[in-house]
Write a structure and sequence with these properties.
- Keywords: EGF-like domain, Membrane, Repeat, Signal, Transmembrane, Transmembrane helix.
- The protein is α+β, with helices and mostly antiparallel strands.
- It folds into 4 domains: 184 residues, no CATH class; 128 residues, Immunoglobulin-like (Sandwich), CATH 2.60.40.10; 48 residues; 45 residues, Laminin (Ribbon), CATH 2.10.25.
- The chain contains 9 helices and 27 strands.
- The longest helix is centred in the last third of the chain and has 52 residues.
- It is rod-shaped, with a radius of gyration of 53 Å.
Length: 531
């Protein structure tokens, strides 16, 4: 008996089955249908101006991964307003897609086989339906002429009349008329014939965040300037209560701690009644609930407008605001979120209830890699060499600066560093090379060493192992005395030579005279010869 009960229960949940369980029609089950994956759900907003009034449309899109062997008929889709109440979102009014052609809320699309007849298709659906047929719960296309044996697509449509619309299996996007500052819920259920997915991973519910930026949406959809879009939003009585023009202005590396700090600026909301300040958060991109513990933002402070900001007539802004985000990592992506903080009364009126509320705006940015040795950062002293790689060769912000040859110091160019000073080698052992009274002269960097200079009145190279320094007077005396002696010797020699020449001349003259006299005597006859 127990075994029969187990078999009965298994058969009750098998596919397909016509059994009743405890007297109640069971939920239809289709194993392949439960393996359908709905992925990449996204939405965007477009706005346009009609008769001086702004119209907003919301485009919702998705992708479906369908297992092999299953051919879907379509999707049940619901887009409805979400109302924030008691810390929860509650479903409210249901939106109908633009240009939706089925007239009845209990109709849905089915793709018939080649030999199956299709009920009459509404004229408005001829171009959009293709080979699909609009059916109701009693259609023969679902049950081949039989009755419903389990709760499926018809049950869903009857349970929540008007909540869901049916779209064909090829549909991947829908468009709706939307309202600013309104969040929406999105539910999509794939189905095949009367089977509707009952798997939570397939029956997808997704929140479509509101369009809170009237100015930005209008500018993205038209050629309006900032001030023109602002004035148009004001004229359409659309509140602008979120911070505007979030901009990353300045990047300031913290070289000592291997982090980067950035300055972010923004304009306050156009609606400033009751505005008391801002909350600022920074977190890694796409991790919106994971606020980075090491990173933090300073309190927002007012700063002057840049002078180039053109304001609309309804914009009473007189100042911008800025904050500094500390301890960020180069090369990483971050999201900075700025939330307008209004008084309690205004917060309740605007519905500023947190991260995705109409009072919050965010900016996603990626920090570029920073090489601290780039001249742009002026990290090291002009007379120093920058080293920005760790032992593994990876560039790091924690760079070091080493003074070049002939200089000494910390090497940084910051005010709290002594930079690089020329080494005075005369204050080191190098000065021992100079002999007294020579003076030590330091060689200008990048040269290393000293020169020895003799003082005035001295001559020489000044080196102990050289000529040293000699007194100019002693040198003159040493030169003058030998020179005087030489001159005296030369005078004496010249005198002796001159004297000898004079004596030689006299002796020569005397010899010549004597010779002449002797000749005369020899030519004159003596007395005896005369006789």
């Amino acid at each position: 008996m127990f075994l029969k009960l187990i078999i009965f229960v298994i058969l009750s949940f098998s596919e397909p089955s016509t059994s009743f369980f405890f007297g109640r029609l069971r939920i239809c089950n289709h194993q392949l249908l439960n393996r359908v994956e709905i992925v990449n759900i996204s939405h965007s907003y477009d706005s346009y101006v009609v008769n001086n009034s702004i119209k907003l449309t919301m485009n919702v899109s998705w992708e479906a991964v369908v297992p092999e062997g299953l051919e879907l008929d379509g999707f049940l889709v619901s887009v409805h307003k979400l109302v924030y109440s008691n810390l929860y979102f509650e479903d409210s009014d249901v939106l109908k897609p633009i240009n939706y052609c089925l007239n009845r809320t209990d109709q849905f699309w089915v793709k018939p086989a080649a030999n199956e007849s299709c009920p009459e298709v509404p004229t408005s659906c001829m171009t959009s339906s293709g080979s699909y047929c609009p059916c109701t719960s009693g259609s023969s296309l679902l049950y081949n002429g039989g009755n419903a044996t389990c709760r499926g697509i018809s049950h869903i449509l009857e349970r929540d009349p008007g909540k869901y619309v049916s779209v064909t299996a090829e549909t991947r996007s829908l468009q709706y008329e939307a309202t600013f500052h309104q969040n929406y819920g999105f539910t999509i259920i794939p189905y095949y014939r009367h089977y509707a997915s009952r798997d939570r991973s397939v029956d997808v519910s997704h929140m479509l965040t509101a369009a809170n930026d009237c100015i930005g949406t209008l500018r993205n959809s038209s050629d309006f300037t900032e001030s023109e879009a602002t004035q148009t939003c004001c004229d359409s009585n659309i509140e602008n209560i979120l911070p505007r023009n979030l901009t990353v202005r300045t990047l300031l590396p913290d070289f000592s701690r291997d982090y980067v700090n950035v300055t972010v600026t923004w304009l306050p909301p156009v609606s400033q009644s009751g505005l008391v300040g801002f909350h600022v958060f920074v977190f890694e991109q796409w991790s919106r609930l994971n606020v980075i513990k090491r990173a933090y933002a300073t309190r927002a402070k007012p700063v002057p407008l840049d002078g180039a900001t053109e304001l609309a007539a309804c914009d009473v802004t007189t100042t911008a605001y800025e904050t500094t985000l500390y301890n960020l990592v180069p090369g990483q992506s971050y999201t900075v979120k700025v939330i307008s903080n209004y008084s309690v009364e205004e917060n309740d009126r605007y519905g500023c209830w947190g991260w995705t509320g109409p009072c919050s705006n965010e900016l996603v940015f990626t920090l570029s890699d920073v090489n601290p040795c780039d001249n742009h950062w002026d990290l090291c002293h002009p007379n120093a060499t920058c080293h920005a790689t760790d032992p593994t060769g990876v560039v790091t912000l924690n760079a070091t600066c080493s003074c070049n040859s002939g200089f000494e110091g910390e090497g940084r160019s910051t005010n709290d560093s002594n930079g690089c000073l020329d080494i005075d080698h005369c204050k080191t052992t190098s000065s021992d090379k100079c002999e007294t009274p020579s003076l030590c002269v330091d060689e200008p960097a990048p040269l290393v060493g000293v020169k020895c200079s003799c003082p005035l009145g001295h001559f020489g190279d000044g080196l102990k192992d050289g000529s040293g320094c000699m007194n100019a007077q002693h040198l003159s005396l040493k030169i003058a005395l030998p020179l005087a002696a030489l001159v005296l010797i030369l005078i004496i020699v010249m005198f002796v030579i001159t004297k000898r020449r004079s004596l030689c001349k006299r002796e020569s003259k005397f010899s010549h005279l004597e010779s002449s006299q002797n000749s005369i005597k020899s030519e004159t006859p003596s007395a005896e010869e005369k006789k």
